[in-house]
Amino acid sequence: MYVEEIDNNVLRENLVTGMLNSLRPFSIYQNEKFFIDHIIPKNKSIQSAGFSLNFKNGKIKIDSIYKNGGAELAKLSKGDEIIELDGNNLDEVYYYSDLLNLLVGETNSEMKAKYVRTSIDSVKENDEKITDTLETTITRKEIDGLSILPIGITNGIDVKLLSQYNQALKIFDELYPDTINNATITEKGIRYMLEQLDPHSTYVSLKDMHDMNAPLKGSFTGVGIRFQVLKDTIMVVQAIPGGPSEKVGIMAGDKMVTIQDENVAGIGISTTGVRDRLLGDKGTIVNVSIKRGISTELLDFSIERDKIPIYSVDASYMASPETGYIKLNNFSSTSLAEIRKAVFELKSDGMENLILDLQNNGGGYLRTAVELADELLAGNKKIVSTKGRKFPEKSYQTSRKGLLENGKIIVLVNESSASASEIVSGAIQDWDRGLIVGRRTFGKGLVQKPIDLPDHTQVRITTSKYYTPSGRCIQKAYEGGSVAYRREKYERYKSGESFNADSIKYDKEDIYHTKIKNREVYGGGGIMPDYFVALDTSGTSDYFNKLIRKGIFNQFALSWVNDNRNTLEKKYPSFNHYNKNFSSKKIINELIEYAEKEGLEYNEEEFLKAENTIYIRLKANIAQDLFDYKRFYQVINQLNTSLQKSLELMKDDKNFKKLAYNK
Q1: Percent helix, strand and coil across the chain, each rounded to 5?
Q2: Same-domain pairing of 112 and 187
Q3: Number of helices (H), then strands (E), in the chain
Q4: pLDDT tens-digit profile of 134-165?
Q5: What per-residue confidence (pLDDT) applies to 212?
Q6: Which of 18, 288, 327, 663 could make an SS bond with 315 (beta carbons 3.0 to 4.6 A apart)?
Q7: CA distances, 131 to each of 55, 79, 115, 116, 120 (Å)
Q8: How far apart are CA 245 and CA 226, in angstroms?
């Protein structure tokens, strides 16, 4: 079934390695009796550093030193923090097995180690701690009475690894000092095993399945509010229109004091804690007490949980007199209906052309991607195909007349546009239907088949790959492992690709041609834009970034709107009136004072560096709280450089002459 040939023995070894990775602490050294009891052959040709380690708070520290081992001869001590082995920075080691492969090698071979030693200077006041960074060479020496347990060693050393699940369970149960049930350790083993296949094959627990499926199904069951925890207070940002909370009269600005007679105010409740208390089965009742405005009297509400829609269209509005804008955050079961509704409304406002924003859209249902492409492409055209080792090629075609077959189309993408976003972008580009604007997409083109397990959990196994109409494989390389695969999009920032199209790395021999105009397009993973727009880091600063990361923009805007809601609603009866007349400059000092109370010191130089960005972001946050969360984008999109570039491109017909489009 899997997309490539796999070695079943390696699969079993990875399962056991994954189980090993879940255990803390653990020592790879075991005595001779242990090997005899468990019928494990010893191998004296491999050794390690002569210490056991403990992972704690992101640090790797020596837990114990074995007598006459390499660590003792190198004068290492308990408590030393190992930070580098043979040039490998241990900050980038995420699994015990990865560390194990750096430590284990042929007997009497050497490794270079860099470590941090902390000592106490009792001469100085208050026994001041002194930290030194030191280097040493460790010889992998044989230690009397101890041998290396052959688990998880995949660094090319010829050793027969333990790969039997039942045997591993017995071994770990004996060695691990704390209690861990078989289901938990097995789940962790399965996750690791599947991760070694590719970055997208995975195990899905019952909780994960709910969290993953709710956005794609387009709904969940709850009370229907958007909220924010502001200084230990649950503040209602919006009662979702038509939802159960709005029906009983809950309003933006209300503060929740109790849920099911449990006090939830001033106790440090988390967002997850609120969700756990408000979500539940359809038809069940949740009782809440609300504080509204300056009144000290609590208002009691009984809310019947119901199906709450999750919208995938974040925003839709006219970006210019002729051009509509739609931002799609994922491809859910309701996306097409939402888009059609938005298109009808935009066309009634005079839309002739469309900018479809798929930036940061990580994908979703294949069927939805195909249906959306069908709305954009005229005639009978291939949209995407899938091929796998055990599965023949399957082609998905257009099948009906769409709402968006006429007019100019621009699709916005970036390094976080993946999967279904790449299917739509690839089809639009390959059929010369519109322009792709932004930066190279993520490169997620693996198809997963869900397999239900007896306990109702699920594994999703990669069975095929996606190909665009011109034959390009969307999937980027993943031979370096899952961590390197996911980090690759951030490496584009370091390599310069995020800022300069000339820095984009692709195989110049991996060239394809579009179906109508025979333009060159490139394979190698992801969709290359027709017009590159560099990542814009101007207008930002550390001060601005801290305002976002600390949640100060959100907290201040919500608090300020709540305190001034009646006045604001009278002064700005509509969003258009607000957007045209409101200036956040008038309240910027209040934001600065609020930030200082939250522990963020004002920095004038950094403020001025990001001044305009701060004004726009604050105005967007206030619009979200005063009107609707979708209005946030209509304001913040002044900073969306790809959108602004697209509006320029729309005005110039020569940009579209090289496409099949005819106005």
Answers
A1: 35, 25, 40
A2: yes
A3: 21, 31
A4: 999 999 999 999 999 998 888 888 888 888 99
A5: 65
A6: 327
A7: 19, 12, 10, 7, 9
A8: 10
Which amino acid type is present at position 43?
N
Q: What is the 3-state secondary structure (H, E, C) of 573-610?
A: CCHHHHHHHCCHHHHHHHHHHHHHHCCCCCCHHHHHHC
- Cβ neighbours of residue 360 closer than 8 Å, sequence gap 6 or more: 329, 414, 416, 417
Mark whether 166 and 230 lie in a shared domain.
no
Strands (E) located in 425-537:
435-438, 446-452, 458-467, 511-513, 520-522, 531-532
Angle at Cα 335 formed by Cα 329 and Cα 336, nearest 5°?
135
Q: What are phi and psi of 621, to 5 degrees?
A: -65, -40
* Nearest residue to 95 via CA among 148, 167, 151: 151
pLDDT score of 276 more than 90: no
Is 501 exposed, middle or buried (CB count within 10 Å of its CB: 0-12, 13-18, 19+)? middle
Structure tokens of 9? 């023995």
Judge whether 659 and 434 are in contact, CB under 8 Å.
yes
Angle CA(376)–CA(379)–CA(384) in degrees, nearest 5? 65
Q: From CA 28, how far away is CA 52, in angstroms rounded?
A: 8
Q: With CA atoms as reference, report the closest residue to 170 among 41, 38, 40.
A: 38
User: Which helix or strand (DSSP H or E) is residue 85 part of?
Assistant: strand 81-85
Q: How far apart are CA 7 and CA 71, in angstroms?
A: 36
Number of residues in the chain: 663
Q: How many whole angstroms from its chain centre is CA 565?
A: 35
Residue range of the domain that includes 580: 542-645
In Å, the largest CA–CA distance within the chain is 85
Q: pTM of the entire structure?
A: 0.83
* Ramachandran category for residue 430: left, alpha or beta (phi over 0 → left; psi -120 to 50 → alpha): alpha
Asked, for residue 339, whether it belongs to a domain, the answer is yes
Residue with tokens 């991607």: 369
Within this chain, do residues 23 and 74 fall inside the same structural domain, yes or no?
Answer: yes
CA–CA distance, 72 with 70 (Å, rounded to integer): 6
User: Would 273 be classed as within a structural domain?
Assistant: yes
Q: Over range 474-486, report the average pLDDT.
A: 85
Question: What pLDDT score does 127 carry?
Answer: 59
Q: Are 374 and 412 found together in one domain?
A: yes
The DSSP code for 135 is: E
Check residue 72 and give its pLDDT: 95
Q: Which residue has the higher pLDDT, 458 or 241?
A: 458
